[in-house]
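Why do we care about 3D structure at all? Because function follows from shape, and shape follows, mostly, from sequence. That is the central idea of this module. The next example makes it concrete: a single protein chain, its amino acid sequence, and then its structure expressed as tokens.
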Amino acid sequence: MNPDTACRLVGTGAGLLDITIPDWWRAQRPGLPTINLNLLDLADDCLCVLGQLHPDPQRVPGWSLYGYPSTVDSSTVLVVGFAAGRTALALTEAQALTHGFDALDVDDLALLTAAWRDLIAGRRGRAAGVRALLDTAAGAGGSR
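And the structure:
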């Protein structure tokens, strides 16, 4: 994988998140999980994009991540992080790869981590710039 491919895959994944998790990229989402860019690491199931957005254990009926019997009952399993996010978005393993949430190679995971970090930081920077312009305009316009 090269950086351009990583950016394309991440763009696909970001588009899916835009539809399913409004404002997922924001630094502050009161009461909701956010992505810490300093910790972001796609090689870690709990620090990846899906892991940080889905930090709480979820019961998933009829599915076992590693094929082991469920610890909850015979028909459910608890999943967290990447597995919880993948399940919440109804992504197959192949779709997780084509949406930039996972890779088969550790070097590719590093490229995807960098691409996600750049995309999220860019969105946060643009939002901060727009907010500053609005604040400036509101201050210059006075009250009516």
